[in-house]
Design brief:
Helix content: over 70%
Order of helices and strands: HHHHHHHHH
Structural class: mainly alpha
Distance between the termini: 27 Å
């Protein structure tokens, strides 16, 4: 696989960038299982002894999105906060659209769970050590996959993705 090739030639940063790209795209397409797989693989690489941990803030954010999708609002806010903390510590910025999405989602959660619970979760994320934040991200369970009907079981993963997009009303070009 591509990941094995990158590992063999020592391109860990490129692997993680690619895995986070896959996770982000999968999240946008609603494929939470693939998103979780990609994030878990990237986290494993980020925790290796020679990692600079450049992508940890992105992983905290994406695991936060997964927590939110699974109804765990407090963990989502805590991971969002840990992500922002890590950005400040490293000086690694997040692109404006990504930050806007995070702020929008965080505000929606704030309305849903109330100011007190939100503030407590945010403060918790600010106070987490790197080890604690990694443990929280790693505790987000794999999303429950939707069973594939028998008549579609012979389709490849890509064919199923295309089928989902068509079912969602997307055009050929989209």
């Amino acid at each position: 696989t591509s990941v094995q090739i990158f590992r063999e030639i020592g391109e860990q940063s490129r692997i993680n960038g690619a895995l986070i790209g896959i996770a982000t795209a999968s999240l946008g397409l609603g494929d939470l299982d693939r998103c979780w797989e990609s994030c878990t693989a990237a986290m494993e690489l980020e925790l290796s002894p020679h990692s600079e941990r450049y992508y940890v803030h992105s992983l905290f954010r994406i695991f936060g999105y997964l927590a939110e999708q699974q109804g765990n609002s407090e963990s989502a806010v805590t991971l969002f906060s840990a992500s922002m903390k890590r950005e400040r510590e490293t000086g690694i910025g997040t692109r404006k659209p990504v930050r806007s999405n995070l702020v929008s989602r965080a505000n929606a959660i704030r309305l849903r769970i109330g100011e007190s619970a939100y503030s407590a979760a945010w403060t918790k994320g600010e106070r987490l050590s790197m080890t604690e934040a990694i443990a929280l991200a790693g505790s987000i369970p794999r999303p429950v996959s939707h069973a594939i009907p028998e008549e579609f079981s012979s389709l490849s993963r890509r064919e199923l993705d295309v089928l989902r997009l068509i079912a969602a009303g997307k055009s050929d070009r989209e």
